[in-house]
TrEMBL record:
Signal peptide: none
Keyword terms of this UniProt record: DNA-binding, Transcription, Transcription regulation
InterPro entries: GntR_C (IPR011711), TF_FadR/GntR_C (IPR008920), Tscrpt_reg_HTH_GntR (IPR000524), WH-like_DNA-bd_sf (IPR036388), WH_DNA-bd_sf (IPR036390)
Species this protein is from: Neorhizobium alkalisoli
Protein name: GntR family transcriptional regulator
Domain of life: Bacteria
GO molecular function, a single term: DNA-binding transcription factor activity
Pfam families from the UniProt entry: FCD, GntR
SMART domains, sorted: FCD, HTH_GNTR
Sequence ranges assigned to domain HTH gntR-type in this UniProt record: 10-77
Amino acid sequence: MLKTVVDTSETVSDVVFRQIRQDIISGALAPGAKIKLEQAKERYSISISSLREILSRLTTENLVLAEGQRGFEVSPASRKELEELADLRSVLETHAISLSFAAGNLEWEGRIVSAHHKLAAAEKKLLAGDASRTVDWVRYDWEFHQAIVSACNSETLMKTLSSVFDRFLRYHMLARSFRGVPVVDDHKLLFELALKRDVEGACAVIRRHVQSGVEHVLKSGNIT
């Protein structure tokens, strides 16, 4: 997901991979845009051979398309993919919730409380019209959802959910608007249900939350 965590063991290629991935998810690299290697080489300060390897890695996440000898382009956005990602996210996140609620301990509850506190603070600023907090909100939104499922004890599930969450997030970034009070209310209710270990209630909120996200993106008119 969109993170700024610094890992001293990262290589230059790892850093650039993360930068390009973030630029795709944030919309800085638009869907369908051709990735010109010479320009990208200058933009990201990396060799063309390393750049090709990075872009090939991103094809495995369906964020980039390889065009054979013609190069690479950012994966296009479509209503079909958005709806497929929504279905997949709902399945994965509700499954992770059921596992996490059963195994979560006091430390898990603490992570949820901390994550929701930061998310709620960012959302309060956004509701007040402070668009500069959008980047904070994106990060804290994932941290909150991640905290809720963090006790599922499945690294594979967490990695898969993270990838789907990011691809779904790309569509929200393309919509270029915050969903407002309804999404804030969803997060508050999800927070309360998590602490109560109410699996059925939390899963219902997630399904509604994801579907309303799809409707919001489609209403923006930026996806066909």
